[in-house]
Amino acid sequence: MKKERIKEIISEIRKVISDKQRKSVIRILYELLSYFIINRDFPKYYSKHMLHRKDSKNYLDYYIGKKEFYKIRTLPEDRELVTFLENKVLFHQHYKESNLQLPKHLGYNLGKEFFSPDGIRDIHSLNSFCHFMEEMMAKTGAASIFAKPISGIGGRDCFKINAEMLGQERLVDAYDKISSSKYIFQETIVQHSLISAIYPQSLNTMRIHTCIYRNGQIDLISAMMKFGSQGKYVEAGGLGTILISIDMDTGALGPYAWKNFEWGGDKFIRHPDTGFEFAGFIVPHFEAVKKMAIAAAAFLPYRLVGWDVAITGEGPILIEGNHNFGFWAAQIADRGFKKNKIFKAFYEELTSASK
């Protein structure tokens, strides 16, 4: 076993032991052993799903085994289609041929070369970058521009650029990172006022999961909302975002949201920044979001995808698709996929084909 992995295990054990909400050590060991005996699989992701906590009674309803996760991550894999999900420029180029609503595309860059509908620009200074952003906003009428890495994950290194930032020292970091990497530029989406009331600083998106059976049938598995917090303008699980389940029939938010265990695993019945109470809130345009997810899956038939969808006053906008979509969070939101009839049927079909 590599030293890095040993360090990870030790760190994880320390987090579990120091967690004031954990079960007794004897109970944790009992559940780990029971899962291993029943499933013949090492429960590697037991603590990541916060199953060590006293309020987690149904640990056997989760796919937490090392072999299980490997199958879920690798068996649906189609490398030719993964490229469309990993590369945001290619994703946009593909889906602009569909009838689905997308963010307004403003261009992309490859290092210091910037590509827009008006042509190619060489931008070698902060001053020329500011002028370029200013031109984009003036031409489109956008209040701000959102820049994100073409192959980025987890919301890291994204930038929201508005007129107030132009020519300011605070834009230096954005320019340095953008000009030394590859970014896509989009008009900032104005979300639905009801969603903004929960947390206005970030675009709060829905993650809705689809699967495709061998016969081509598409099903919806589950959905959850992702809200920013602590003044951040990007919501993403790796940045301390809070997550909350959505009832697939009614579109209602669950009774509480949570942060992932790496960020403390806190639970909230109200948004910690705004005090908005989650329970009973109905997500606007939820039926339209479900139709969009099915249409997106049909247009790019990768077998297991988590679609990120923004909700505006006019309806949903498709942001991106994720083949590696934070399976742990989806399971926590749904209280374990082993009792989700749709995913269970998909998993059984998926694994039966590999035997």
Detailed description of the structure:
The chain is an alpha+beta fold and 355 residues long. It folds into three domains: 3-64, no CATH class; 79-101 and 192-352, D-amino Acid Aminotransferase, Chain A, domain 1 (2-Layer Sandwich), CATH 3.30.470.20; 105-187, Dna Ligase, domain 1 (2-Layer Sandwich). It is 34% helix and 20% strand. A six-stranded antiparallel beta sheet has the order 3-2-1-6-4-5, sandwiched between helices. The chain is globular, with a radius of gyration of 21 Å. The protein starts with a helix and ends with a helix. The model has no long low-confidence stretch (mean pLDDT 91).
Q: Care to give the gist of this entry?
A:
By secondary structure, the chain is an alpha+beta fold.
User: What is the succession of H and E elements?
Assistant: HHHHHEEEHEEHEHEEEEEHEEHH
Strand percent estimate: 15-25%
Structural class, from secondary structure content?
Answer: alpha+beta
Walk across the major sheet and give the strand order. Answer: 3-2-1-6-4-5
What is the terminal separation in angstroms?
Answer: 28 Å
Q: How many structural units, i.e. domains?
A: 3
Q: What's the Cα radius of gyration? A: 21 Å
CATH architecture name of the largest domain: 2-Layer Sandwich
Give the strand tally: 13
Mean pLDDT: 91
Helix content: 25-40%
CATH class of the largest domain: Alpha Beta
